[in-house]
Structure formats: C-alpha cells, structure tokens
Amino acid sequence: MNLFITGANRGLGFSLTKQAVKRGHRVYACMRAKNARQEELTKLSDAYPEQVQLLLLDVLNEESIVSAKAELQKQNKEVNVIINNAAVLNESRANLDELAMEEGLLAMDVNVLGPVRVAKHFLPLLTGERKTIINISSDAGSISNTYGGNYFYGMSKAALNMFSEKLRLTYPDIRVFSIHPGWMHTDMGGEKAPLDPDIAADGILDILEGKTVTDSAHSYIDYTGKKYPF
Fold first, then answer.
1. Are 137 and 180 in contact (CB under 8 A)?
2. Which of UniProt's keywords are assigned here (predicted)?
3. pTM surpassing 0.85?
4. Which of 80, 93, 153, 223 has the smallest count of CB within 10 Å of its CB?
5. CA 48 – CA 58 distance, rounded (Å)
6. Predicted confidence (pLDDT) per residue in 35-68, tens digit
C-alpha cells in the first residue's frame, strides 16, 4: 500500500513510517520543515529510496498541502491510505483561569482543521480496494470516558472524532477511523508513558492490512482494533 503520513519525522509518525517500510509499503512521509528532528527520517529515506518519499507539508498552511498534492500528481503517484498524525499538545496542565486563548485556537487549527485540510485535498487521490483515512486521536477525545483538565487537547480530539464519523457516513466506500494509539513514550507522551510507539504503529498497520478485524460501523477505536467509547 501507499501511505500518506503527516508528522512523519518523529514520534508515532516516524514509527508508522519505519514499521510500514519493514512491511514493504511505500510511504509519502510529510514533515513541516527541514530541521534537526528529521535526521532519522532522512536516514530511512536514504536507505529505502524506493519506499520513502519526503514531502514538506504544514497542516496549518493549505498552500503547502496543495503543493504536496501537485507533486504526487505530477509523478503519477497513487495514495491508498491517509494518516493524519500531526498534532500539538499545549496547555495540558493549565488551570481554567490560566488558559491562553491563542493556544486553544492553535490546538483546534492543528488537531482538527489540519486533518480537514489534508482530507479536503487528498481524499480525491485515494484509490484501491482498501482506501482508508486514519485520524490519530486520543483517549482524551472520549466524552463518556473523560477526565478533568487538559482542556484544549481533549476538546480538539473530540472534534476530530466527530470529523471522522462524518467522513465515515459521507463516504461509505472509504474506511475511516479515529484511532487512540495508547499512552506512548514519545515527546508528546513523555518519559513515564509505558507504550513503545513501534508497538502502537504495528497495531495500526495490522488494522490497515486487515490482520485485525474491526467494526466498520464504529470509527473510534484503539490501536488493537477495539471500540473506544465516544
């Protein structure tokens, strides 16, 4: 399969790219800008030039999304899977009276409108028998299983879950999932997180490949394929 992954230069995005390459898939690996955090991704691309193509893409910048789409179209590349992974976690420990509204706007822009922008432009490129859109969500986006604090991130992921469900109902020929990847040992998850992102990535790839059977009528699941409560 050909996977289009945002935020591929670190964390879960890099694990998804790395594990997908091991399984023989091709990855269009998107990163916001060229910087030191892309070193491992660049090494992977150099080692597997036929499987990893690097693209500059900022989910906040619609022009960059259009440019990435045009680049793939020019090369007659096919996309079978879109994985909206790029996200931001901010103000997670702030009390209500400490919240900076501009940080809330940023969370919604990156975590919700970012995937909307990508889907808007790349959904028409989806092809193949297992066309899929995966929006990387979180348990923080579950309203029925929520917890106090972490306002902006939780609100944005709940909105992302709604977007996934809207897509699922609007495009019945496309598999759509909001996936809670678990509490991972990444920059976002922190050092205390118990889950290796490679394990979460393998779980997500098992879902993509059909090795893990999921309920197509429920878009919100975890990385093992189990239903997660909205």
1. yes
2. NADP, Oxidoreductase
3. yes
4. 93
5. 24
6. 757 899 999 999 999 999 999 999 999 999 999 9
